[in-house]
Structures are given as structure tokens and as C-alpha cells.
């Protein structure tokens, strides 16, 4: 172990740990010091001051001991004494809020069209162009290929369908052998034989076949379950339905005669025969080769593939054609024609859908009315010879996922050009036919399309756009630019109005009133036929030529926005004759273009069209401003004098008339032509017109009251007729170029007796604040307190008048007297009344004040003025009754001057000096100023208690006194106590004090020995410790009845209890200390447990404001006679204290006091010295604390009962007796010690 300790010492680990712990202690100490120093004056004790239910009040303090209320916190308010007469005290006057905006012209764009309609309604199919050569087109279609006779396979046999059982007459049917062998049966005409479920033998079989040979017209033969193995001698050329099921036929050889003699057989059933049970299918191919019309074999439809496999010889050369014919057999549309019409009628077919059938050939040239053809997913390689050009009404073809081949020498798509009605074609999925879209569009450009679009409508799954059609023409006709532009214009008109309407209704376009073709890439437009057109929108196109514009005499709206290639000159030249035009849009969005909304572009356009067009109000969706109208005359070289006159007259017309039906041309804006000048009372719309002085004359507007001429170019305001306007009250000349002398303008304003408001800012003569003050100073009316003119830009204040007076060379004394007269007028003050006691002149900008006659002043408030010296307040030293003086926010620079100025004021209790420009110092201005008033800390030579908004604290007086002298006491803390006493009891001798409030003084040393008369003492919220209290001499205060020592640094409860034992305190406040933090039942019991003097029970009535009860004192340890073991002594030897103590211990009333409950009606009011007020509660008490105490006592009592009821053993009883004895010995020692301390 020693070796381990040695190693630790060598490594220095212990030193490191010691240094670490030392560092932690130092950090904790610093934290504690910083937290204690950051406490406010109200929380200087043991902890932060809490909300208190009870406080001590003092009634016998002298008036100087009561601290007056502090000065309220103020902010600099230069407008406090400003008498606001108008709304322009802070905001400069202008007519901004009365500005009237011109309404935006509303152009009627919705026009009720009255176009002629077709009698048969809107058609679905289109037409060829009106200039299309239809004869040449049909000739090419006719010569392209020859019509072939290709029909469905089933139509090569009998044309009529097989007659069913129900449709066959009874005399032509044989249903039994008896019927068949009957003599009445005509075998030559028999067409239906049905014999089944009969077991035939040799003779009967032969008889049956001999009979059947005699039926040449037989169509239906049913021989089911007849035990037939072969069919002999059967020659039935008309046979179409044959059922031989459930027999014993084993080979085709046994029925060869029947097969060879029945080429038209359509249905054959061999199920249930050994032949049909064979897995080989070769017999099927043999049957199909012999029976070309066979459709159903063994109750199954013969597939096309099986039929094709059965072909042989020359028929295999036309295999694909036969496949097409066989597929036609499957079409329900063709099958439905069979029972309706006999023979082949291909002209009735309108739809063919044969997708995914492996077709390599098709032909539809004999189907002229075909409208839809779907051959997708086949093996087609060519469609040029399929007769598509013969289909006049074919609208839709689908050749997707085929094997079409397109090469440079041969393209199967050329036939598209000869299909007049084709609208939709699908060719995607042909791997050897690519990049065909633009070619198809070009080839199909002449097809009829729909009534709203010519050419192909859709290719594959995408609609053919107008742009693609034009691009195809430009691609395959590169040298003909006009051709694409003309074709586009035709397409647009067809889309807008309908192809049939344009071709069948004469002069259809002459009825059109509105034409909107925006964003259509139009390059050429011919408008010569639109005679009734009123609204034309060709914006965002690619126009290069615009023809026929001059013929649109009724055109009101023309929109040519974003047509950068359209030349300006030709368009403007055509618009000269358009006298009905109201709106014209011509600018270009490209910022580099010359028509990108620049002012020069607008000027050039307006100069060309505005003078001759009286209805034009919008250019590029912007209102043509009045200034632009005036400028257009300048651009047309009119004399400038005439133009400026027109500008002035136009401004007056706009001001005096409504915008509806207002004339704006020179012959319409003369004064009096549209309004009566004598009726006009306001001219508020003359601002921002660039008006000049030579062109203006306002004399005729005799009754006008308001004029706004701001933002113009006026240079002279003396010769525009203002002198004649006797009713003018408001005038704005802001932002002009006035250059008249200020003196002449002042004379003009003096002569305008009705003028109340004028605004002159923004002119060369009014660029600085001094110019405005100079104008006010030169006006004779401004020397009066009341005048008509109230506002020059802003409201004219008394300060403006005074400063203007000084600036214009007036007397300063007269100006200040004028200012004071104004202040007295608005405040209704009589400054010459010597009986006045309170005078407030804050925020008056005063530099001088004479208070000679105001000898009775008690309050003088002069914050926020311009005083520089105390001498500026004349006769201030003579105000002997002055109680409060407020000099905050002035211009005092010397603190000593202020200190010397207040020393003669022996009644001054409140002083305000904050906000003055004192020299900066490391010492706070309060300490520095207080050090200049020695009467505050040497003796009570000055009563000043409040400095600014805070009470002068004793600690501040200590600091200030130490700046000018050494500490008169050995301990600075004791000096603080004496200063506090001086401030709290300035006029009463200390030994005669009965009430003393030293709360919140930061004192840590007490000297109370001489204060023997004290009855009420408050030491709360200080820094008092246990030793301070013990050494303070408080035990001499035997008349003390109330003591408040809350929120200090008391830690030893025993020490406090010893002091309480020696006093006769009736009310004690001790909480908020470390030894007694909160006033709860546990703390109160602990407190009384520490007390050793029994008189505490009878003397102390209130603890922390709450009445003392028996519950609080039940643990008080009072020695009884049985536990005091005293040797026999002579009673005479007992000193007085012991005798007094013993008398109280063995007093017969002691038990009664202990046992009885405390008197609830006890009140401090019964005390003659204290009356009632020092324990008045400041908040209502709450019951939750009592509830907690009650619950705690209940719990303790319950525990006691549990211990009592518990059965104890002998050993436990012995131990209990021993501990009781030890407890009694301890009480004995405490008692002896107490007696010794008492004397």
C-alpha cells in the first residue's frame, strides 16, 4: 500500500486532484459573488424577495423620512406643447389622396355575329378547294388500276342459304323410312331426309340407297345411328347438308361416290364414325380438296388454314387471293348481305376489319362505298394495286404492323394522293417503311378532309397539325413560298368558318364582323373581302404582307402584336383612312426590335394616325396619354406657343369634365366650350402636365378654392392670376421651377387673405429648411398669434415662427417672449400669477425663463428644453418652497453649475438631471453629481431624496462621499449604517426613535444599543448575518414589539431564538432566511422548539403575520420540577433572575396556559404602542398552506398513536426509559446555561 501511495505522489495525481477541487471551489465562489452582486435593491438578502402577505407600516416618521415619489420616466417629445391645428403637423400637405384616375377605356370586343347558315346544317365531310381541278384528279384515279372481280368464297356456290327444317314444306320432307318408301312421296322433288336411330341390315341398307338415288333435288341428308359402313350408289348433286354421325364409316373410300357427286356440300358431320376418330388429319385435307364449299366438318367450322392446305395444282398460285376471299367469308357484314340480296353486292360494304390474319393480298377496288378498312398485323408489302383509289368514301385505313416496302424507285404510299376522302391512316410498325409522315401529309393535302380542315386529319396516333401541313408544302415545294402562305390562309378561313359555307354561300366573308387568327403563323393575309369587319386579331404571327387593310372602314380594333417582319410604314399608310379605329396594337416583344414599346416608336405611330383619328384611345393596350396627344402636335411641326396653349386648355378640360364623350381636340378644349369656369371650385388635376407659366391664366376661375399645380414647369407664380382668386384656400406648387424672390412671394401670400394651405417644396427657392423659415420670417402675418395661413408644406408651428423671426433679423428676446406668450395661450396659463404653485413647460424649446414673480412655486417641470446654465432660469434661488425641479433633457454641460444652483433650495426633494450632455466619466453620473452636494452626507443640510426616477440610496451617498473625503468610520459598512440612519430619521434624535425602517439598505452592520425606545423595527432585505445581529445590541430594545428581519443571511436558528427569548416581541417576521426559509408548520414547530424562555408562549402572538397556535408550541421544551435536581439552597441566595425564572416556571397559571387553546380573537390593536397598521396584510392569505400543515400534524399524530399501540418488549421498555433520561439531562443542561446567560 505504501508503494502505491508513493507511485501516486511521484506521478502528481494527488496534486492534480487537489488543484481540480480548488478550482471548483473558486468557480463556485465566483458564481456566488456574481449572483449576489446582480441582485437588485429589493433582493439583497438571503434570497430573492418573495411575494409577501404581511408588511410593516410606519406611522410616526417625520415628513423628511418619507420618500417622495420619483420622477416618471419620460421620453423626448418635442410635440408635447405643439398645438395641432391641421392634419399636416407631421406629414407634408399634398393632394395625393384626392387624385382622380382616368377610367381605362373599355373597348367592346364581343360582337354579335349574323353569319348566314347552311340549310342542311354543319356537314361532316369536307370539300376540295374551290380552285382544285377535280376532272384531272378523277382521270388519274380512273387510270391508276383496273377493277377486279374478287368476291367472297362462299358466293361461288349456291347464292341462297340452306333451307332449315322449319322452312322446308312438309311434302318435301321424309322423316322415317315409311315416309321415304311411301308411294305418295315424290322422290324427284324431295329435298329433306332425316332418318335416325334405326339399325339397318343388308337388305334394308340396299333399299335405302336405291331410294336415295332417286332424289336428285335432295339438299339435306341426315342418316344418324343407322349402322351404315358405306354409302353406295349415292349421286346427289344438290346436297348441301349431310349428317352421317354415329355410323361405322371407316374410310373416305366407302363414301367416295357421295363426295364426288356433291361438290356444293357445305356441312358434313362424321362424328361417331371410326373415320373421325383417327388422329390423322389427312382425310380432312382430302375432303376439303373434293368439297370446296364445305364450311362445317364434324360440327366445327373449317379453318382458313386447313382450307388453304388442301389446295393443290393451279390454285396454289393464287393462294393469297383465295386467303382474302376466305377471310371475306368470315366477315359478319358480308354474311349479313346473303339473306337480303342475292348475288354479290360489294357496293353495299362500308367496313372491313381483318387484323392479324396473315394476309399478303387484298383488294377493295370493287367496294366504292367502303368507309373503314383495318388490315393491321398482316403481311402486306404493297397497297398501290389494291384499288384504294376507287373507294370514293374511304375515311380510315389501318396498315399498322405489316411489311410495306418503300424505296426510292417505288413507294406504296403514292396511292394516298388519289384517295379523295381519306382522313386517317395508320402505318406505324412497318419496319421497311419509315419517315413517311411529312410525305403522307403532302400527298393527302388535296383530300376533302372535314368541313373545318382539308387534307389528312390523323396519321398513326397523332393529329396532323396545321403547321405540319404548311411544313410539308414548304419541304416538297421549296421554291413556292407564296403557295404555302396562301394554303395556310385558306386553311385558317376553312377552320374558322367552314369549307362548305365558304363555297356555297355567296359573299360569305362580307358578313364577318370579328376575325381572330392569333398565333397561327400567318404570313400573308388578304382582307379586301371583309367589308363589315370591326375587330381583327392577327397577333403573334409571321406576317410579311397585309393587303386590303384600307378597305376596312368599320374597323375599331386592330391587333398586330408580335409581327416583327411586318413593316411599319406600309401599315401606317393604310391606317390613315381608318377613322373608326379605337385600339391599335403593333408592338413586338423582342427587346431588340425597334417596335419594343419605346417612346420613339409610340411617337412615330401616334404622329401618323392620331391627328386624323378622333376615336383612337389605346395604343398597345396603353392609354394614349394627354402628354402624347400634345407631343403628336409638336412632332407635326405645330408652333410651340400654340402647343403649350393646347396643353393648358386640355388640362383644364380634363379637370372640369367627365371622361365620357369628352372632346380632346384643339377645337374642343377652349375655355368655356365644355364647361362654365365660374362654376368650377377645384382644379386638382393640373399636376404633372408640364405646364409653363407664359401659357397659364387662371383669372377667369373666380370661385376656385383648391388648385394643384405640382410637378409642372412653372418658373413664375406671380403672373398666373393667383391674386384674383379671392376664394382660394389650398394651393400646391410642389416640384416646379419657381425662381421668384422670397420677399415677393411673402408679399403675395400676405395678400391672399383666404389662403390656408400652400405647398412650395421641391422648387429652387425652397430647397432647404432655412428657406421655409425665411419665408415665414418675412411674412407680416406670421407676427400674429392668429392668422389664416396655417400650412406652408407642413403646419406652421410656434418654433417655425420664432426661428423664422430670428433668421430674418428679428430680436431674440422678442422672439422668446412671443414663444412664451403662445405657450401660455394654448395652456391657459397666467405666467404672471404669483400664487401659482405648479408650472410645467416641458418640450417648449425654451432658452430663458424668468420666475421672479413665482415665489410660491413648489413644482417646476422643464424637461426637454434648451437651457444651458442655471442662470437662464432667472430668480431660481428665490424659490424657497420648491419641492420638485425637473431639468432632464436640456443642454446643461456643467454638472457643478447644476449642483451649485440647487444648494440654496432647502425644500427641494426631487430633482431631474438625466439626458443632459454631461462630460463622460468612468463614474456614474449619479455618484458624480451627489459628490458635488456635500450637504447630503455630512449632515442633514439638504433634503434631496429622489434623483431622476430613483431614490437616492444610502450606498450611493457612501460612494459619493468617499470621492471628496476619507471614510469617517473605521469600517465602511458601519458608515453605511450611519448614512442610512441619517436618511431614514433626519430630524428625530436616535434615542427618541420609536419606529425605524432600515429595510433594503444593504447594511451588514447594526448599532442599535442606543435605540432603546424603538417599538417597531424593520431590517428586512439586507445583508445581516448571525454575528451582526448578535453584536448589534438588539437585546437592549426591551420595548420592541414588532421586528421584521426577513430576507437576510441568518443561518443559525438557535442564535435567533436566544435573541427572541430576551425580548418582548409580539410580532416577528423571520422567514426568507436560511434558518427559516418558508413559513410552514414544520418550520414554526422547529422555531419554538429552539426557544428556551417560556414567556415566548405568552408574549409572541404573531409569527410571520400568522397567529401563534398551540400546534406551534406543543414541542416547546419547558423543564418541570421532577426533572430538576437541585441541591438544597437558601432561597435568599437566589439571584433575581433565577427567582423570576422559577416563579414563572412554577406559576400555577403555566399549566393553564399550556393546556388551553390560544385566543383566536387576539389582535395587535390591543397594543397601545403599535395600534394595528404595521401588520396589515398586503395580499389575501391562502388556505392551502394550512391544509398542508394540518395534514402534516395529522400524519405525525397517527405515527405517535401507532407507536403507542404497539406492544413493547421488556428490552424495548428499558431502552425507552434510558433515552428519556438522556433527554431530561439534556434539558437540564440547557436550562442551566440559559440561567447563566441571563445573569
Keywords:
1239 residues; alpha/beta; Leucine-rich repeat, LRR (right-handed beta-alpha superhelix); 7-stranded mixed sheet; 6-stranded mixed sheet; 35 helices; elongated; disordered N terminus
- Spell out the CATH superfamily of the domain at 64-81 and 812-967: Ribonuclease Inhibitor
Mean pLDDT: 81
Low-pLDDT regions: 1-43, 1119-1207
Largest sheet: 7 strands, mixed
- The beta-strand count equals 41
CATH topology of the domain at 64-81 and 812-967: the name is Leucine-rich repeat, LRR (right-handed beta-alpha superhelix)
Strand order of the largest sheet: 1-2-3-4-5-6-7
Helix proportion range: 25-40%
Tell me which CATH architecture of the domain at 64-81 and 812-967 applies here. Answer: Alpha-Beta Horseshoe
- Based on secondary structure, the structural category is alpha/beta
What is the molecular shape? elongated
Distance between the termini: 58 Å
CATH class of the domain at 64-81 and 812-967: Alpha Beta
Strand content: 5-15%
Question: In angstroms, what is the radius of gyration?
Answer: 64 Å
The total count of helices amounts to: 35
Amino acid at each position: 500500500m505504501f508503494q502505491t501511495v508513493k507511485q501516486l505522489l511521484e506521478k502528481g495525481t494527488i496534486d492534480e486532484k487537489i488543484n481540480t477541487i480548488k478550482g471548483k471551489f473558486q468557480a463556485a465562489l465566483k458564481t456566488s459573488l456574481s449572483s449576489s452582486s446582480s441582485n437588485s435593491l429589493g433582493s439583497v438578502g438571503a434570497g430573492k424577495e418573495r411575494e409577501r402577505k404581511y408588511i410593516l407600516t410606519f406611522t410616526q416618521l417625520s415628513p423628511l423620512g418619507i420618500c417622495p415619489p420619483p420622477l416618471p420616466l419620460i421620453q423626448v417629445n418635442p410635440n408635447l406643447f405643439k398645438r395641432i391645428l391641421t392634419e399636416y403637423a407631421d406629414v407634408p400637405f399634398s393632394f395625393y389622396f384626392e387624385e382622380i384616375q382616368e377610367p381605362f377605356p373599355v373597348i367592346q370586343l364581343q360582337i354579335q355575329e349574323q353569319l348566314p347558315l347552311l340549310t342542311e346544317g354543319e356537314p361532316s365531310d369536307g370539300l376540295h378547294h374551290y380552285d382544285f381541278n377535280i376532272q384531272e384528279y378523277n382521270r388519274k384515279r380512273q387510270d391508276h388500276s383496273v377493277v377486279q372481280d374478287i368476291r367472297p368464297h362462299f358466293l361461288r356456290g349456291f347464292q341462297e342459304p340452306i333451307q332449315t327444317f322449319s322452312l322446308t314444306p312438309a311434302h318435301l320432307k321424309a322423316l322415317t323410312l315409311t315416309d321415304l318408301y311411301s308411294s305418295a312421296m315424290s322422290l324427284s322433288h324431295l329435298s329433306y331426309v332425316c332418318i335416325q336411330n334405326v339399325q339397318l341390315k343388308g337388305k334394308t341398307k340396299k333399299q335405302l340407297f336405291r331410294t336415295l338415288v332417286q332424289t336428285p333435288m335432295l339438299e339435306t341428308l341426315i342418316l344418324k345411328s343407322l349402322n351404315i359402313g358405306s354409302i353406295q350408289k349415292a349421286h346427289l348433286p344438290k346436297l348441301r347438308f349431310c349428317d352421317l354421325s354415329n355410323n361405322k364409316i371407316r374410310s373416305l373410300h366407302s363414301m367416295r361416290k357421295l363426295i364426288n357427286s356433291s361438290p356444293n356440300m357445305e356441312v358434313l358431320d362424321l362424328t361417331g364414325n371410326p373415320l373421325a376418330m383417327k388422329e390423322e388429319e389427312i382425310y380432312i385435307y382430302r375432303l376439303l380438296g373434293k368439297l370446296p364449299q364445305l364450311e362445317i366438318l364434324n360440327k366445327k367450322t373449317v379453318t382458313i388454314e386447313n382450307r388453304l392446305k388442301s389446295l393443290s395444282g393451279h390454285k396454289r398460285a393464287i393462294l393469297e387471293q383465295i386467303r382474302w376471299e376466305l377471310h371475306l367469308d368470315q366477315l359478319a357484314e358480308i354474311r349479313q348481305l346473303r339473306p337480303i340480296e342475292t348475288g354479290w353486292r360489294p357496293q353495299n360494304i362500308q367496313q372491313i376489319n381483318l387484323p392479324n390474319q396473315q394476309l399478303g393480298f387484298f383488294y377493295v377496288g370493287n367496294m366504292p362505298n367502303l368507309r373503314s378498312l383495318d388490315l393491321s398485323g398482316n403481311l402486306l408489302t404493297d397497297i398501290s394495286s389494291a384499288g384504294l383509289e376507287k373507294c370514293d368514301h374511304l375515311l380510315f385505313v389501318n396498315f399498322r404492323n405489316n411489311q410495306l416496302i418503300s424505296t426510292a424507285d417505288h413507294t406504296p404510299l403514292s396511292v394516298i394522293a388519289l384517295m379523295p376522302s381519306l382522313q386517317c391512316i395508320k402505318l406505324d410498325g412497318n419496319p421497311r417503311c419509315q419517315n413517311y409522315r411529312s410525305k403522307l401529309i403532302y400527298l393527302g393535302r388535296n383530300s376533302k378532309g372535314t368541313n373545318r380542315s382539308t387534307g389528312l386529319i390523323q396519321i398513326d396516333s397523332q393529329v396532323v397539325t396545321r403547321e405540319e401541313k404548311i411544313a410539308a408544302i414548304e419541304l416538297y415545294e421549296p421554291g413556292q413560298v407564296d403557295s404555302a402562305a396562301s394554303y395556310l390562309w385558306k386553311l385558317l378561313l376553312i377552320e374558322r368558318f367552314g369549307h362548305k359555307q365558304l363555297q356555297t354561300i355567296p359573299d360569305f366573308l362580307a358578313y364577318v364582323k370579328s376575325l381572330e387568327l392569333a398565333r397561327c403563323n400567318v404570313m400573308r393575309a388578304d382582307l379586301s373581302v371583309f367589308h363589315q369587319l370591326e375587330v381583327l386579331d392577327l397577333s403573334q404571327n409571321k406576317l410579311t404582307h397585309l393587303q386590303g387593310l384600307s378597305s376596312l372602314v368599320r374597323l375599331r380594333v386592330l391587333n398586330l402584336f408580335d409581327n416583327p417582319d411586318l413593316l411599319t410604314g406600309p401599315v401606317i399608310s393604310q391606317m390613315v383612312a381608318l377613322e373608326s379605329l379605337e385600339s391599335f396594337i403593333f408592338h413586338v416583344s423582342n427587346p431588340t426590335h425597334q417596335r419594343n414599346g419605346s417612346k420613339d416608336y409610340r411617337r412615330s405611330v401616334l404622329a401618323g394616325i392620331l391627328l386624323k383619328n378622333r376615336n383612337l384611345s389605346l395604343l398597345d393596350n396603353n392609354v394614349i396619354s394627354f402628354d402624347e396627344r400634345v407631343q403628336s402636335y409638336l412632332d407635326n411641326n405645330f408652333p410651340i406657343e400654340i402647343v403649350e396653349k393646347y396643353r393648358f386648355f386640355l388640362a383644364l378640360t380634363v379637370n372640369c369634365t367627365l371622361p365620357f364623350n369628352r372632346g380632346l381636340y384643339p377645337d374642343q378644349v377652349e375655355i368655356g366650350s365644355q364647361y362654365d369656369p365660374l362654376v368650377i371650385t377645384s382644379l386638382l388635376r393640373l399636376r404633372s402636365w408640364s405646364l409653363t407659366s407664359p401659357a397659364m391664366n387662371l383669372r377667369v376661375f373666380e370661385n376656385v378654392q383648391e388648385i394643384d399645380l405640382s410637378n409642372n414647369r412653372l418658373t413664375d407664380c406671380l403672373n398666373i392670376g393667383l391674386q384674383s382668386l379671392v376664394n382660394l384656400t389650398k394651393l400646391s406648387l410642389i416640384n416646379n421651377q419657381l425662381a421668384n424672390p422670397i420677399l415677393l412671394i411673402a408679399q403675395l401670400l400676405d395678400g391672399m387673405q383666404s389662403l390656408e394651405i400652400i405647398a412650395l417644396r421641391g422648387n429652387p427657392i425652397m430647397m432647404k429648411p432655412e428657406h421655409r423659415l425665411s419665408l415665414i420670417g418675412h411674412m407680416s402675418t406670421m407676427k400674429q398669434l392668429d392668422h389664416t395661413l396655417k400650412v406652408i408644406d407642413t403646419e406652421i408651428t410656434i418654433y417655425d415662427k420664432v426661428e423664422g423671426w430670428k433668421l430674418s433679423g428679428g430680436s431674440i428676446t422678442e422672439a422668446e417672449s412671443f414663444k412664451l406668450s403662445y405657450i401660455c395661450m394654448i395652456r391657459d396659463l397666467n405666467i404672471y400669477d404669483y400664487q401659482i404653485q405648479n408650472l410645467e413647460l416641458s418640450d417648449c424649446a425654451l432658452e430663458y425663463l424668468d420666475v421672479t414673480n413665482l415665489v410660491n412655486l413648489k413644482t417646476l417641470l422643464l424637461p426637454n428644453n434648451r437651457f444651458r446654465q442655471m442662470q437662464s432660469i432667472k430668480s431660481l434661488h428665490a424659490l424657497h418652497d420648491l419641492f420638485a425641479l425637473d431639468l432632464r433633457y436640456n443642454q446643461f454641460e456643467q454638472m457643478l453649475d447644476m449642483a451649485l444652483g440647487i444648494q440654496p433650495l432647502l425644500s427641494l426633494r426631487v430633482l431631474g438631471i438625466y439626458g443632459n450632455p454631461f462630460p463622460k466619466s468612468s463614474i456614474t453620473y449619479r455618484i458624480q453629481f451627489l459628490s458635488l452636494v456635500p450637504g447630503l452626507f455630512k449632515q442633514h443640510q439638504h433634503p434631496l431624496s429622489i434623483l431622476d426616477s430613483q431614490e437616492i440610496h444610502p450606498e450611493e451617498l457612501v460612494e459619493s462621499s468617499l470621492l471628496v473625503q476619507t471614510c469617517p468610520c473605521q469600517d465602511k459598512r458601519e458608515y453605511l449604517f450611519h448614512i442610512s440612519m441619517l436618511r431614514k430619521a433626519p430630524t428625530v434624535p436616535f434615542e427618541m426613535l420609536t419606529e425605524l425602517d432600515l429595510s433594503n439598505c444593504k447594511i451588514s452592520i447594526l448599532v442599535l444599543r442606543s435605540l432603546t425606545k424603538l417599538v417597531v423595527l424593520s431590517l428586512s432585505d439586507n445583508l445581516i448575518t448571525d454575528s451582526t445581529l448578535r453584536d448589534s445590541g438588539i437585546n437592549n430594545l426591551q420595548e420592541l414589539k414588532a421586528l421584521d428581519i426577513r430576507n437576510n443571511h441568518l443561518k443559525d436558528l438557535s442564535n435567533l431564538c436566544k435573541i427572541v427569548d430576551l425580548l418582548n416581541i409580539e410580532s416577528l417576521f423571520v422567514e426568507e432566511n436560511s434558518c427559516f426559509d418558508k413559513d410552514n408548520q414544520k418550520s414554526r414547530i422547529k422555531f419554538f422548539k429552539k426557544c428556551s424562555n417560556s414567556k415566548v408562549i405568552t408574549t409572541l402572538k404573531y409569527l410571520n403575520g400568522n397567529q401563534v397556535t398551540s400546534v406551534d408550541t406543543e414541542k416547546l421544551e419547558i423543564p418541570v420540577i421532577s426533572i430538576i435536581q437541585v441541591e438544597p439552597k437558601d432561597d435568599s441566595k437566589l439571584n433575581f433572575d433565577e427567582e423570576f425564572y422559577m416563579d414563572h416556571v412554577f406559576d400555577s397559571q403555566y399549566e393553564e396556559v399550556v393546556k388551553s387553546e390560544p385566543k383566536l380573537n387576539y389582535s395587535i390593536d390591543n397594543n397601545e404602542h403599535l395600534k394595528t397598521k404595521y401588520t396589515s396584510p398586503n395580499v389575501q392569505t391562502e388556505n392551502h398552506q394550512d391544509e398542508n400543515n394540518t395534514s402534516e400534524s395529522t400524519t405525525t399524530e397517527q405515527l405517535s398513536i401507532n407507536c403507542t399501540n404497539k406492544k413493547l418488549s421488556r428490552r424495548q421498555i428499558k431502552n425507552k426509559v434510558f433515552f428519556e433520561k438522556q433527554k431530561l439531562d439534556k434539558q437540564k443542561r440547557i436550562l442551566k446555561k440559559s440561567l447563566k446567560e441571563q445573569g
